[in-house]
Amino acid sequence: MRFSRMLIPTTKETPNDAVLASHKLLLRAGFIQFVGGAGLYNFLPLGKITLDKVRAVVKEELDKAGCNEVHLPIVTPLSLWEETGRADKFGKELLRFKDRHENSFTLSPTNEEAMVNLVRQTVKSYKQLPLNVYQINWKFRDEVRPRFGLMRGREFLMKDAYSFHATTEDMQREFDLMEQTYKKIFTRLGLEFKVVEADSGAIGGAGSKEFMILADSGEDTIMVCDACDFGANVEVIAEDETNCPKCGGNLSQTKGIEAGHIFQLGTTYSEPMKAEFLNENQKLEPFVMGTYGIGVSRLLAGIIEQNHDDKGCVWTKASAPYNVDIIVAKAKNEEQMEVAEKLYSELQAKGVDVLLDDRADKKTGFGVKMKDFELIGMNYAVVIGNDISEGKVELITRKDLSKESVALENIVDVLIEKLR
Ligand code: ATP
Ligand code: MG
Fold first, then answer.
1. Which superfamily does 324-418 belong to?
2. pLDDT digits (tens, 9 = 90+) for 45-55
3. What is the dihedral angle through the alpha carbons of 245, 250, 255, 260, rounded to the nearest 10 degrees?
4. Residue 97 CB neighbours (<10 A)
5. Is the whole-model pTM more than 0.70?
6. Residue of 261, 264, 296 to mutate, ligand 1, most atoms within 8 A of C-beta
7. Is the peptide bond before 130 cis (omega within 30 degrees of 0)?
8. CA distances for 31 relative to 6, 18, 240, 376, angstroms
């Protein structure tokens, strides 16, 4: 894309209600825009591109693990929620409304009931099991305190998966597979994270684990062992506990952002909803279930909480809206523009996500382009300036803002190597 053609409203002003770095920076760098109602944001072009990139990583890994993508309506009949008794239990977070015929509906905050309803109509025999069905779709929760931008919105993008099994053992096998799959997703996204034992809350069921992005600004307090991989949310372990229940090592306290949650559900939903299959002995049994969530839009905030500096965002390679920003120092200089255009096409041909900062108006000099590069946080900038006369360009790494002079003829290979 060309910067001159894109809607990227970067600003110096820090929104006064924003506390978290991710909230401030995503607004300032033009990724998102506040709509007006608490917890509602427009995703501007950069935000949409980034969200789609993160979403694609989630989808790829789930598909590799054998999950089926579907798409459910955001509007769910309240009657489904009444079948499990959650219409009452979920409280005010569940937004309810009526249509013109006085039928009651909800905006889905999660979709256990709706997915059980999908499967009970289509899966009748143990031969069709196991099955893992997911969607990546918008959720609405009328949160008591929507805040921190994408971190706790009212409308947010969630990947929600539900698995169906003939036995508890098979559900536990899938639960482990999902834990491994989530680890791949978080690793690919370049995140530092911890898997912790967690409370099952309003969703219900037996075992559950949370995926915590490690960041001081996290709302969750977690206990981690310094000797083994044990970790737990303080909700399930005494805060003054100092010894690891697994290996006896030292426990220490740290902060995390909950980005994913996996649950062993059992028959909590299938029983009341009469979702049953015929087992090997031709007897009806309720499905044994697991459920697995990832806060896809929250991930954007989490990535920035972990990766930013005083100048702006520092996206990881897998999440950056563009990996390379070509900065034309003087866009009015024909030679610079020509070199930049050629590099832009070459990188595109090699499949690199590249932005060409070709802005040529008086107000947008080299300084402004550099500031925008730092604020937006793409991985690398290539500055096309005066040194092209010596066959050189400047390569800037966003993470540490280090600069190196690279021969123009080598820059494509150098970038491809760095982005590998
Ligand atoms: P929290 O404790 O932060 O409210 P939760 O336990 O209610 O989260 P789940 O019901 O497990 O969350 O939802 C699955 C995932 O959806 C969470 O792990 C989180 O990443 C994301 N999520 C939940 N609520 C929000 C929200 N209000 N805004 C953005 N993402 C959210
Ligand atoms: Mg919640």
1. Anticodon-binding domain (3.40.50.800)
2. 999 999 999 99
3. -40
4. 11
5. yes
6. 261
7. yes
8. 12, 15, 41, 8
| Residue ranges of domains in the chain | 3-309, 324-418
Give the ligand whose atoms come closest to the C-alpha of residue 208: 1
CB neighbour list of residue 203: distance below 8 Å, 6 or more residues apart: 110, 112, 261, 263, 265, 291
Rounded Cα gap, residues 94 and 273, in angstroms:
19
CA 288 – CA 272 distance, rounded (Å): 13
* Nearest ligand, measured from the Cα of 292: 1
**Fold classified for 3-309:** BirA Bifunctional Protein; domain 2 (3.30.930)
pLDDT higher than 90, residue 240? no
pLDDT tens, residue by residue, 142-169 = 999 999 999 999 999 999 999 999 999 9
Length of the chain: 420
Q: Is the pLDDT of residue 37 over 90?
A: no
Strands of the sheet with 380-384, listed across from one edge:
354-357, 324-328, 380-384, 392-397, 403-407
258, 262, 305, best to mutate for ligand 1 pocket (most atoms within 8 Å of CB): 258
pLDDT band, residue 205 (cuts 50/70/90): low
Residue 105 amino acid letter: F
* DSSP bridge pairs for 383: 327, 394
